[in-house]
Write a structure and sequence with these properties.
2 copies of one chain form a homodimer. By secondary structure, chain A is mainly alpha-helical. Chain A has 2 domains: 67 residues, Arc Repressor Mutant, subunit A; 127 residues, Tetracycline Repressor, domain 2, CATH 1.10.357.10. The first copy, chain A, is 69% helix and 0% strand. In chain A, α2 packs across α5, α2 packs across α7 and α9 runs antiparallel to α10. Chain A starts with a helix and ends in a 14-residue tail after the last helix. At the A-B interface, α7, α8, α9 and α10 of A face α7, α8, α9 and α10 of B. Chain A binds a DNA duplex (18 and 18 nucleotides) through α1 and α4.
DNA sequence: GTCTATATCCAGATAGAC
DNA sequence: GTCTATCTGGATATAGAC
């Protein structure tokens, strides 16, 4: 060991990768919570235990750090999505499975969902819950099912994918409001998430099974 | 006219209601664009032509002004919604009409949709795109249609309403991302909004027409 | 690589003249 | 009711020692 190394040991523990990770973790949590403008570098410094100036040293600026946070979140999102448990499209049950899988996947990835929502409002079209690869992946599964004749083929696979994502993401985004609404109406069911999912699956499943008929007046009662 | 009035005339035009409206208008636009933390009172002052201190004089604080902006937006949203053109539920066409009406209604109320999205992220459950009265109104129409036997009755009206809102609000929220996605895939259709709406209406319409059958393997091709 | 200290600016809010 | 001027704190970012 050279003299320099001995000297370095006296300095506070050096672990650049660990430090960067600590900063990114704290920043991600805070940005997801309060958005870019709602968080100060000081906040991140305190939450991560790393000094302000070191944050600037590693990332250059608050905005550059934000971009790094989002970039890392995209990677993790995609990694989790391809590694999720999944079933092969052999029958129509796969469709319900797909809807349900995505629904719970969104719940389990609240942080990135919030990050992407902030990003969307800020006009950033890079990070988003659909995330190009994930959405194309889903759409492709639907396409294949259509080719096999499992799903109606007169709806666009991509558009159907967006609808499925909408049903899940919207629910988790505004869930507190819905809970509040139900409470005000006097009902507050225990398994509200399952209940919503069951209803959505019902409707979507029937919706993708059959071709659309022409809509004609078909009153059940005469008036 | 008393001497006092003459003196007052020399002061810059006094129009408290006009001033307040100018402040609210500018604030609403900016808050919708950049969120609460992304806007300074100075920004609002410059955009409205009203001095900072006068803003504080009229609203007390930046946060109180924000609340006023949201409150006014709720009122306007609700007012617009009850005054929209609507049809009576005489046949199943009313359902497609309802979905389409809401879809374009959301497009035409971008400011309040953005405001409510910011508010949602900030943890405010008062302002939201569903907005209690509006969502109950929609759900009631669906309930009535169910009683008339126009829609399947084994799905909850409120849950169905939420799904319908999800389909529209999610689309407009992430529309720029979808446009970008389509472009990257080599397709960029002209009437993408109409296209999405057509697909959604198709699926939802079929989805609400029939009772759910038990899901059994029903392969079209044998494998 | 990591810290303390600090420069510089801008934020929300107030004082007080008119 | 409306303005100009100002207070005070907190923001991002940098300088420079170790």
């Amino acid at each position: 060991m050279s003299q320099d190394d001995v000297l370095l040991d006296k300095v506070k523990a050096r672990d650049p990768e660990g430090t960067k990770r600590a900063i990114l973790d704290a920043a991600e949590k805070l940005f997801a919570e309060k958005g870019f403008s709602g968080v100060s570098v000081r906040d991140i410094s305190e939450a991560s235990g790393v000094s302000q100036s070191l944050i600037h040293h590693h990332f250059g600026s608050k905005h550059a750090l934000y971009e790094e946070v989002k970039k890392r979140a995209i990677d993790r999102f995609w990694h989790r999505w391809i590694n999720r448990s999944k079933k092969m499209p052999h029958d129509l049950g796969f469709f319900a499975d797909g809807v349900e899988t995505f629904f719970w996947f969104v719940r389990d990835n609240e942080t990135i969902m919030r990050l992407s929502c902030w990003a969307c409002l800020e006009g950033d079209t890079d990070l988003w819950p659909g995330e190009k690869e994930a959405i194309e992946y889903l759409a492709q599964e639907i396409s294949q099912a259509q080719e096999k004749g499992l799903l109606r083929s007169d709806v666009n696979a991509l558009m159907l994918t967006i609808l499925i994502e909408a049903a899940s993401i919207f629910w988790w985004q505004y869930r507190p409001n819905f809970i509040k609404l139900f409470e005000e109406m006097g009902k507050s069911p225990e398994n509200i998430d399952e209940w919503y999912l069951k209803n959505v699956t019902k409707v979507l499943l029937c919706g993708v099974m059959k071709e659309t008929r022409e809509i004609k007046p078909q009153n059940n009662d005469k008036d």
